[in-house]
Amino acid sequence: MVELALALLAAMLLLQALLSVCFARLVRRRSVAQAPTAPCPAAEVLLCLRGVDPSLPGCLAALAAQRYGGPWRLVVVVDSRQDPAWGAVHTALAQWEAAGQASWCGARVLALAPQPAGSRKSAALHQALGALDAATQLVALVDADAVVGPHWLHSLASACGRPGVGAAGGNRWYLPERRSGPGMVRAIWNAGALVLMTLLAIPWGGSLAVRRELVEASGWRQRLQTSLCEDTALTTPLRRMGMGFRFEPALLAIDRDDSLALVPLIRWIGRQLLTARLHHPAWPLVALHGLGTSLVLLGVLGLLAVCLVQGQAGAAALLALGLLLYELGCGLILRGIQGAVAAAIEPDQRLPLRLWLRWLPLAQLVYGLATLWALLARRVEWRGVHYRVLRAGVVPFSVAASTGAARASIAAGWLR
Q: Which CATH class is domain 33-279?
């Protein structure tokens, strides 16, 4: 039994090392590759808002400062006219345009129209995609918490212009400013998630571009009517059209947010995993990775406890040494992932190995709990809105009289 436990630890470590090496090689190869020379197509950037994020002014300022060689338009869809973002966006856009510093050739602010199903963000995108300008050839999505660089839109257009690429984008990289426990747990989870998302071609909607001709033809816009999120719901429509998603390392966005407590963080990670469960064909692999990482670790710890109780000092010492080597190996793998990211975006600081190692066991446990939650979830909350997840079918929106919270139902398995 001890030999089997040690073999499982070694196999898990080897698998994670191989995945990380593949990720690092891909990142380094794409970081030095020259972008193809191509004209900048007419583009529209879609921003969906519910509430005012602290980063919203920076997001709008970054969009106003885009250096793009072609015409592009900004479309902002706000949850309602009563939402505080409605006035904030109008004021900010008017200021940029009055100063003559807005790089867009036109901007519109729309109020979200009622839609019978799906999340409010998916509904907002469905609405915006149905009202694209006739000249638009490229559609880009950005989140309010993504403060992009001045060449962001140009990089997206260059990536989408490659043969066989239907969509392209970046991802998040967390560098918690206070290096708190929950912040480090999220950074560790995100490092592993970044590897899986890149190798399994799972997009991130916070920085994403899609060719205009695929929006309707692939069935993506139709799928948004019942989906929880827009990004993982894009993979299958792209494959249906014989197109792929391309991850661009230069579009990695550094996020220094360190505000989540541990319990909300578990729910937050669980919701990220739930989107893969609902919409991405690689969900079984993601679930296996999440549960396997925690179950193997817990199993070895349980066996270690049994050996100690039974007085098997030699076996207990071997298991303890195996666990220490496993955790050290995982910490070194995280350092390697960080090194590949740093080579791509040159972050101004790196997290030391001791920090990765200090919070790694807790992050592994949280990953397993969040994966289990995503497997069993029947309800999910997102920005104050509660949704009910079903196996099949869609129930229209209803408003709970007691809380005023909008509740919707999202189809699960049948969406694939």
A: alpha beta
